[in-house]
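Hi there. Long-time user, first ticket. I'm pasting a complex I've been working with (about 1952 residues overall). I'd like to know whether the download I got is complete or cut off, because the file seemed smaller than I expected. Thanks.
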Amino acid sequence: MAEMPPAHPFDDDKLKEECGVYGVIGVADAANFVALGLHALQHRGQEAGGIVSYESETGFNSARRFGYVRDNFTKASLMETLPGHLAIGHVRYSTAGSKGQTAIRDVQPFFGEFSMGGAALAHNGNIVNAEALRRELIDHGSIFQSSSDSECIIHLMARSFQKTIPERMKDALRRVEGAFSIVAMTRTKLIGVRDPLGVRPLVLGRIGDGWALSSETCALDIIGATFVREIEPGEMVVISAGNGVESFRPFQHASSRFCIFEHVYFSRPDSILGGRSVYETRRQIGVELAREAPVEADLVCPVPDSGTPAAIGFSHESGIPYGMGIIRNQYVGRTFIEPTEQIRNMGVRLKLNVNRALIAGKRVVLVDDSVVRGTTSQKIKEMILDAGAAEVHFRIASPPTAWPCFYGVDTPEKEKLLASRMSEEEMRDHLGVDSLRFVSLDGLYRAAGEAGGRTPGCPQYCDACFSGDYPVAPADMIEKGFKLKAAE
Amino acid sequence: MAEMPPAHPFDDDKLKEECGVYGVIGVADAANFVALGLHALQHRGQEAGGIVSYESETGFNSARRFGYVRDNFTKASLMETLPGHLAIGHVRYSTAGSKGQTAIRDVQPFFGEFSMGGAALAHNGNIVNAEALRRELIDHGSIFQSSSDSECIIHLMARSFQKTIPERMKDALRRVEGAFSIVAMTRTKLIGVRDPLGVRPLVLGRIGDGWALSSETCALDIIGATFVREIEPGEMVVISAGNGVESFRPFQHASSRFCIFEHVYFSRPDSILGGRSVYETRRQIGVELAREAPVEADLVCPVPDSGTPAAIGFSHESGIPYGMGIIRNQYVGRTFIEPTEQIRNMGVRLKLNVNRALIAGKRVVLVDDSVVRGTTSQKIKEMILDAGAAEVHFRIASPPTAWPCFYGVDTPEKEKLLASRMSEEEMRDHLGVDSLRFVSLDGLYRAAGEAGGRTPGCPQYCDACFSGDYPVAPADMIEKGFKLKAAE
Amino acid sequence: MAEMPPAHPFDDDKLKEECGVYGVIGVADAANFVALGLHALQHRGQEAGGIVSYESETGFNSARRFGYVRDNFTKASLMETLPGHLAIGHVRYSTAGSKGQTAIRDVQPFFGEFSMGGAALAHNGNIVNAEALRRELIDHGSIFQSSSDSECIIHLMARSFQKTIPERMKDALRRVEGAFSIVAMTRTKLIGVRDPLGVRPLVLGRIGDGWALSSETCALDIIGATFVREIEPGEMVVISAGNGVESFRPFQHASSRFCIFEHVYFSRPDSILGGRSVYETRRQIGVELAREAPVEADLVCPVPDSGTPAAIGFSHESGIPYGMGIIRNQYVGRTFIEPTEQIRNMGVRLKLNVNRALIAGKRVVLVDDSVVRGTTSQKIKEMILDAGAAEVHFRIASPPTAWPCFYGVDTPEKEKLLASRMSEEEMRDHLGVDSLRFVSLDGLYRAAGEAGGRTPGCPQYCDACFSGDYPVAPADMIEKGFKLKAAE
Amino acid sequence: MAEMPPAHPFDDDKLKEECGVYGVIGVADAANFVALGLHALQHRGQEAGGIVSYESETGFNSARRFGYVRDNFTKASLMETLPGHLAIGHVRYSTAGSKGQTAIRDVQPFFGEFSMGGAALAHNGNIVNAEALRRELIDHGSIFQSSSDSECIIHLMARSFQKTIPERMKDALRRVEGAFSIVAMTRTKLIGVRDPLGVRPLVLGRIGDGWALSSETCALDIIGATFVREIEPGEMVVISAGNGVESFRPFQHASSRFCIFEHVYFSRPDSILGGRSVYETRRQIGVELAREAPVEADLVCPVPDSGTPAAIGFSHESGIPYGMGIIRNQYVGRTFIEPTEQIRNMGVRLKLNVNRALIAGKRVVLVDDSVVRGTTSQKIKEMILDAGAAEVHFRIASPPTAWPCFYGVDTPEKEKLLASRMSEEEMRDHLGVDSLRFVSLDGLYRAAGEAGGRTPGCPQYCDACFSGDYPVAPADMIEKGFKLKAAE
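Hi, the file is complete. Here it is re-exported in full:
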């Protein structure tokens, strides 16, 4: 089974988005478009992917595979098994525990056969009361097939007394707490929903006479679809040939709390989030950093590839020349399979090499997007000093990550987050660099378009990973002993 | 069988290096080091790779595989079959014709059993009189197993009357015309040779008590070896435990003619060639371009990834801001397998997306490393204009490529090279851009460290692909009807 | 995905058993014993197999694979994932419709997590009211994961109000109509059940301090277990470390109706059914045939391999010499994969060849076990005549197969059964042989040990495929329009 | 890579034929016919197979694979790469040493490109002076690619001064000592040769307007070809569209010495060898055995499957009933892959089971084809006694195997052959059976059609494995210290 490869060379020390969702209705061979969309969303989940399509003659068809979209959903022999004008898909990253061949059952979309017909569903986000719901459902005779929190939604739908699938989905989602952007389908309808806070993104596009739903706009571009609008927080859209796009508001109103880390790292730089270019926001974070934390230096280097836009902004604002001080090996998209002991120990050198001729003797500003455990920051520092750098200054394009995410991002336990245990000064000493500075939370909000910075008490974004301010109480985790900030 | 993926998103329209070679002696599990070295040389050949090792108990062992080094030569089960303190390896790209599973016989290193023992050999370059030699050898009873030009060397060695393998190799190489950097091994010796003109690179490194030979210095870095020196043009080194590095000069002296395209595109930016940083040379080409071909514009964008250093240089010299106008999908390291028709037609969009928010309304300078057929330059232009660019100016970090290479680079036939049929002005019209400029041959030489530019009549580099000035007559090709410049 | 190969060279024209079940408790590495047992039961299902084991540390583990047991469940890497002292398994053949990679979900054992813990279940037989049950369960909110009739049992168990899994299983099975021999397990118990009529076999064996349940005794032999007794029709046994074998009678009493075709073809000749050797019963059928339908001839030939015992009996009783007139290619255990058109057309010749030297000029009696569609009987006749046989006499070791089975055997639709459309005489003409005779139903019963033949009105066996006398009304099929004999 | 499975359940204790050869000319898609022929010859070699075809447009094409013919050469995608009206093929078994993936180079047919064009060659037999020839060829500059003795022939052909390939082949074969049946091809000719003694079989068949060469007649039957005649010992046939079948006699005349073990075990029972049915010869050996070594008993059982014809003959002659006392598992065509330790220890039980009900209390005659090491005879005896047999009498359908074969059969070293160390009486004691008798050498000759038995001094067959009378001195082995009978 193919091992899954993250985009970032130090991916062991990055937060990971857990999912991307996609759906298309009203075009021939819809599954092919979904495959393309999922390919463009691959950065949101590399472990596995799945597609379900519907066609009247053969009914619902599905294929779920471990590995990259490009290695599975491009084979004509597979795609021919997914006919029809309506299809949805999902890419997923998951925690190590449930990885492996037996977990193909955990790969979405999930499917349920109800008395009024079948429905398939793909979910990006995380349900924070999933364990309580699961216990309740099992007590009443539901049989779970996966270890996924998302499967609850299907079982809740199965037990609803409503007569249509969209109504059953509303019933089910009202029981669910947490973050969710969902793409679902019946035999005739494509459905999109975002939770009341709109934590995860979901956008609507137009492709010919049909429609597409996608986690990000970059996946509309790839199929030649035009971006129409974002699905609103708390909105459900039901799209069909007959009625076009119908909009519903099944939930109580709440203030939007979009995930600010989508701007910092998760989303692709060529996507548009909330009307803003992700690239431009990241470049602007570099500008803010250069203002907040200037330094005398000879060279600004990005940590490839995610630090690049902020490094360009920092260089531009500071006037310090920009250069590629760290070169990435193009052939490490996929991690080494069954690596020998010797190769595992090579670690960073397999992925990166320092451009010695450029670095030697220089005072270097290294721009990275975040510090999670801090392990790789340390290795990079060593490589740079070995190559003869005179000084090393870290500039981080996000505030210190001190709290875990419970809304669909794979974060280490709180104790493993460097910033949960150390002050900025302690981190500088720990990493042994000449200086270490993070952009401020206000600086980050300004870069993301909030000229006045963060509104205290009523922040415009979910920034729980930086602030510990969780907009939805993580019920299952609290039951297991997690302490909220107020409770510490 | 895995399809092979080039690094560059428009690889169909790039010249391709055909090989990388590597060897290690004097360290335990030498094959593991060779695997790492080949991984670092993967950009020089992605189709297949092979390693041969020697150990007294099991003799010579070999493994040859299609696909990436990281996907094959990292499995403990395979590497255990390659024991010993001495090993060599090869990565290869080849033309479409001989691709496929049956051509595993074409994958190097090649091996021959002679009366005094066995020898293995890996070759980077091209033998221009291989077909004549092959006919002669077959007439005398040699049986060829591959379609590779390099196999001639083994057969010439088998027929030599010399008593040692290094002497037989000298005998054989004196019959051979063309470009070659060779790494070979006997049961006790590691051997490196460069042809008299030194067209292809080969460097020597020290690793612990042992030695390494490599096409490029970046592959010394990955194993922690220190760079000692380049193997000289026309030099043969024979390295053994007892005698260290012995140097021989088996060929008539000739002036060095190192391939200047190694600086422009083939070698990795973090390698050192002829004492110069490849990254710095490329950045300097951008500086030269900005001087030779200035333009009023708002943004300098590299065509990712190979145009990046020159774009940085151009931006720095011109003062025009640098930005990522084209975003590359990180998950297209490997080409789509068995792509459906629809996906094949997507072409560029699978690999690149335009950063619309950055491009829209701007006058854009696009910096690319070369123009071969021109097909992808055209697609990129279209994407940029579709995204709303006000003007598009191409700046190319090499002179027009008008002649095929016969020294180990896969080039299209002469007629397919855009620059062989059109002037710079015609190319500009053909591509439909606002301006198109190539760096001059003198500018390129200056960037590569020759302050006085190209010395006419006695150029410091092989630049046949730009100038048509072939330092070794391509005998087999001339027999097949190829016309030299003088003969046109 | 490997295509699965039946044992019989003309398997397209044979009835097929759909399942074998096996379970072991009380021995270390129980899954290894289950693998061996399933290997010995491979003739009962070749498409796929699955094993579930339980161990306190890792909980329930499962592996389900397409293909032969020997090709999957013999790999140390897989078997190590199935630890524990308790395991059950299943081999399965299925109809073409649900074949293919997506149907791995249809491979048993099935697993359900209940509030009191998990249970796994493997089923041999067929539930005749499965579709009605399925509709009812879906109406109440159950989500089905497979297209298998057996999944109903798990959902019925999930909805039971009983507090223990054995009690829930009793609840569930009382709702189920049809034929079932079930092996199931909880965390601590191995459970075996046979339906009230005992249509499918299930036997109990002792292995060291532990116990085994198996469809046939031959699969006790392979692990060195001793045969203890058959599970009785309508009996449920619950086996645990603490309480040994406990016996329950959850169903209303009914007269036993064991499947007589198990004697004729399905079971292995070295198994013991109802106290009788299958080999001996088959040999005795040949004796009965020789008495009922004597013929003057020179040679008795079995149609390999299933006709062999009856041919030996026929030869012995008639005094006509026995010989191998048809030679089977040993290497057709597995069907040709992706066969070219030409090879598909070769059909029989890939599998069998006539022993011309033996056949030529002789009057040949061909003994086969059954005639289903008659297609292969015809091909064999042609081969025999082409080889120069003087006469061809078919003797069939079962009565005419005129009715489909609804109790776990894959039969063609009624119209495709040759004997449903033709009299014995018409079949003889259709096949173009010199004579064709089937053993009588009474002769078959005598050979199976019923000295007085079949008891009319109260037959000792289920012989519905010959008589149309169905002991349980096939509810789902009747709803779809199937006509019982009385209704014709 | 798939492990290869022999047909016989105790194959570790059997002599193994090392090859089968096949060729077809003059029919469209010749490679498909070759694949069918090789499938029918699979019993002669299960490790690997290869096919070479020729077509004017694409030239020579070849495919060589480990594993069964049916698993490789039935895929349309592969067979399409082997176009043309002329093709040859080879199946092979080889000794353990050179097994594994790297030895694909040892898989025939071998191919050589000569100045007058290419030729491919497949060889059944063994060259007894191959090592001396190999040393000589290497000294003169030949490069060997395999460890196969057969490759010498190609190199000898390459060095011949003759102008045509058939003449070069004659030149080469005159240098070669040992046993060979060869099928070869040029661009226009199919060539067949047998060594002067005719040790291995080779037959000619007619298929439509074309011709086939095959090791055995059973492989003519499978493609619907008619048997024309055997290639004579010492004959070379050259078959072409223009000239039909031309016959040559390149070697000195010698008396024929066909391998008598082909009758005993290697060839398929449905083949015709030297005008005699193999089945009939084997049955007749059983008759001879019953006459030479009668015994009072209740049951004659074959050891499946190769002992069956002799058991039928023994039963017929002795009047003792024939029965299937040992049942073979149909699903052990392929050996267990990566078997767990536990499964490896199961040994015989995976493959065979005793039919207890038949055996219990009976005096049993077990008929087997040969005794090699005696290891499995012992295990079978134990199974039979465990099942309650009253007496066990072994009757062996060949004389004691006391000498290794050097003519293309894989035999253990002399010391490992039970009969080289023990008398018949000692073997009986060693095996612990009630009686053990082998057919006499004269009895074997009589059964094979030589009414007068073996002609001393001038035997009609090669029977070296029984008699130690080697018709060609095994030169390489003698050099390594092997002692002939006279020298003992």
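A couple of notes from our side: The CA atoms of residues 392 and 485 of chain B lie 34 Å apart. The longest helix of chain B spans residues 278-292.
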